[in-house]
Amino acid sequence: MSTNNIAGKVVVITGASSGLGEATARRLAAEGATVVVGARRADRIAALVAEIETGGGKALAVVTDVTRQVDVQALVDAAVKGFGRIDVMINNAGLMPHSPLERCKVEDWERMVDVNIKGVLYGIAAALPYMKEQKSGHFINVSSVAGHKISKGGAVYSATKHAVRALSEGLRQEVKAYSIRTTIISPGAVATELPNSATEVDVAQSMSAFYEEYAISADSFARVAAFAISQPDDMDVNEILFRPTRQEY
C-alpha cells in the first residue's frame, strides 16, 4: 500500500458508477484512500464498494444525482459524518450528447449545463466550507480536450467544459488562504460510457467509431488523478491535459 500522500485521505467522487469515476475509486482505494462514491445507479456503486471492501479497502456508496444540490450536499456530508473529513472532491460526473446547433436539441443542452456546470458548482458548494474549516483540501474538476478546443457538433459540450476550467481557475485564486489545492484534468478519448449519452443516431455512430479506434482505458485518468493527489501539500498541480498518443483532436 502506498503512503504517497494518498493513503488515509477521504476522497469523494461523483459519477462513480462507471468510467473515469469507477476507475479512480478503484485505484485510490488500492493506494489506501477511503473513497465515498456517488452516482444515480445504486446497484453499480454498491457493487463497486463491495469489490473495494473485499480487497481490503474502505468505501461508502451514496446515491447521488448531481443535478440536485441536496444530493451532492448529502454525499459530502456522508463522507464527513462517516470519516471525519473530506480531503479530495472529484467533480467527475458529465454528459456529452453532441449535435449540431441547428438541430436545436435544447433538452440536451440543458442536461449538459445541469450536469457539467451546475454539478461541479454543487460539488464546490458542498465541499468548500469543510475544506475551509480544515484549512486543507483538494478539488479535482474534470474538463476535457473539448475545454481547450471546439469542433463542429460539440459547441455546447465545449462551452460547458470551458466553463469548468474558468470556474476552477477562479476557485484556485480564491482558496489560497486555506491551503486548498485545485486541479483541472482534461482527458481526450478515454473508454467510458460518455459517447452513449448522444441522442442523435448519426452522431452516436460517429462518436462510437471514433472512441472504438482511439480510446485508451479509464485507468489512464485514474493514474493522472493519483499523480495530482500524491504530490506534496506545497505543490499544486493546476491543470493536466492528456490524450491517447494517436489522437489528433
Integer tally of domains:
1
Pick out the low-confidence regions: none
Q: Which percent bin holds the helix content?
A: 40-55%
Q: Given the helix and strand composition, which structural class is it?
A: alpha/beta
The proportion of residues in beta strands is 15-25%
CATH class call: Alpha Beta
How would you describe the shape?
globular
Radius of gyration: 17 Å
CATH architecture: 3-Layer(aba) Sandwich
Give the mean pLDDT: 95
Straight-line distance between termini:
37 Å
Q: Give the neighbour order of strands across the main sheet.
A: 3-2-1-4-5-6-7
- Major sheet attributes: 7 strands, parallel
- What is the overall number of helices? 7
Structural summary, described in words:
- The protein is an alpha/beta fold and about 250 residues long.
- It is built from seven helices and seven strands.
- The radius of gyration is 17 Å and the shape is globular.
- The termini are far apart.
- About 45% of the residues are buried.
Question: What's this model, at a glance?
Answer:
The chain is of the alpha/beta class and 249 residues long.
Show the helix and strand layout.
Elements: E1 10-14, H1 19-30, E2 34-39, H2 42-54, E3 58-63, H3 69-83, E4 88-91, H4 106-134, E5 137-142, H5 155-174, E6 180-187, H6 201-214, H7 219-230, E7 239-242
Parallel strand pairs: 1-2, 1-4, 2-3, 4-5, 5-6, 6-7
Helix pairs in contact: 1-7, 3-4, 4-5
Defining key terms:
249 residues, alpha/beta, Rossmann fold, 7 helices
